[in-house]
Each structure stands twice: as C-alpha cells, then as structure tokens.
Amino acid sequence: MKNYFKIILGTFCMAAATNTVFQPFGIVTGGFSGLGIILWSIFRIPLWAANTILNVPFFIAAYRQKNRKFFWNTLFGAVMLSFFLGVLPKFSFFPRDFYVNLILGSLLMGTGIGIILRDGNSTGGTDLIAFLMKKRFPTVSIAVLLGIFDGGIVFLGTFVFGIENACYALLCIYGITKVADTIAEGPGVSRLFLVISSRGEEIAEMVLHDKKRGVTKIVAYGGYTGRQIPMFLCVVSKKETPVMKEIVKEKDPHAFVVITDAREILGEGFVKNIQ
User: Fold this and answer.
1) What phi, psi does 194 have (nearest 5°)?
2) What is the pLDDT of residues 45-84, one digit of tens each?
3) Does the domain spanning 190-274 belong to CATH 3.30.70.120?
4) Name one GO cellular component term (predicted).
5) Domain with CATH 3.30.70.120 in the chain
6) Can you give the pTM of this predicted structure?
7) What is the pLDDT of residue 51?
8) Over the chain, what is the mean pLDDT?
C-alpha cells in the first residue's frame, strides 16, 4: 500500500509539472509526456489520451517479458499519470515569469520522477521501451537507450516549438535529473578513500583517534612485486575530504590515493554518522 501511495504522489507531481509548465510553454523534456505535448500542439490530442495510447503496445510486450510485480506497478503508474494529466487543470503559476515557471516545473517533475524511481517503479513511456530494448541490444546500457529515445523526442520538439524552447528543455532536463537523483539516491554523496602507503598504519591511527572515523584495513599485494602492501579504506563526508587529504599528505606525500563517490552507504547507522 505504501508503494502505491508513492506512485500516486510521484505521478501527481509529474502531471502537475506537465500541465502547469511544460505544456503551456511548449517545453518538450522527453518521455511520452513530451511526445504528448507535440501531439497536442499539432492534432489537439489530450495528453492523458496520448499517454494511454502510446503505452498500450509496450505494455502488451512488457506483460510477456517482465516479472508480474514490475508489470503491475508500472501499469498502475501509467494509469495514474494519465488520470492526473486528465483531471489537473492547465494553468501557469506565474504567467509573466517564464524562468520561474521553468524552475518550478523542473522541481516538480524531478521530485515526481525521484519518488517513482526510489523504489524501482516506473510509469511506462520511454523508460519501459528502454527496458524492453535492452533484451534486443544487451551490450547497450539502459541509460544510453533512454537517452536516445528522449533525445529524439526533444529533437522533434524543435520542429514544433523552435530551437530556443529546445534549449530551455535541455536545461530543464538537467535540473530534473539532478533533483530526481537526489531524491532517488539520497542527498548525501560521501567520499570513499583507498590509501596505499608504507606508512598506512600511522595514517589509519590518526584517522581513527584524531578524526574519529572508522578505518578498514585491507591486505593487498603488489601486482608486479608480489609484496604485501598496507592499504586501508575510509568513508568520509564531502566537507571532511580536504582534511583527509592533508592527513595523508602530512604522513606520506608519496602515498597512492584513490578518491571516489560513495553514493549509498548502509549498515551500522553509518549514514547518520557520516553527515
């Protein structure tokens, strides 16, 4: 039940963004909602009808290929999106301020998509096509397939609404992606340090006792020399990254350090402590 509530909330935000911002201003951000805006502009087909009609053949294909839970959740998401596209009024929050509308629309759309993606759900459309096409083109990632389909829809929008609106659409897509990623994966992107140093024990002790950060010691061997090399792993917040660099540099200027993003950390209440 909680999952369905999230789908309802997410599709409401997506439909609100489409009806109040993207359709009135002719901003095509991809997806079936973007294709629906193009069809509405040319043929006056309602958005809810376009979304429903476009999804039907792909749901038939999905029923045969995907697991049943994914299918029913996606079907529910598509139905709710079409429902909200049909019932929510079409107006502009700030008719005289184009840019504020774009920001608001991107926030709403990104929030809706993030809520949907957080639990691995979908509303059909181009992401469903990407999932289905993945079986035919296994060497191509879903992200690339989705980018091709959505990019094609944005390109079609240039012939209907002009190149200027297409550029605005690309800016909106960037904002939508950032908001959706933050909601789907969490706002805190921490830093993962992998440090290889002959003075690794001293560095680890300083991190443990002075900075109160956990350290995992790893037994590593040089691929060329075959000798055992001290290495440790540590995860810190973004703001602690410069401090960690200074600690390593102070103890061993020649240390080999790999720093990468840790997008999700689970267990031991670690996410709470890392902030």
Assistant:
1) -120, 115
2) 999 999 999 999 988 888 876 567 888 889 999 999 999 9
3) yes
4) plasma membrane
5) 190-274
6) 0.76
7) 95
8) 87
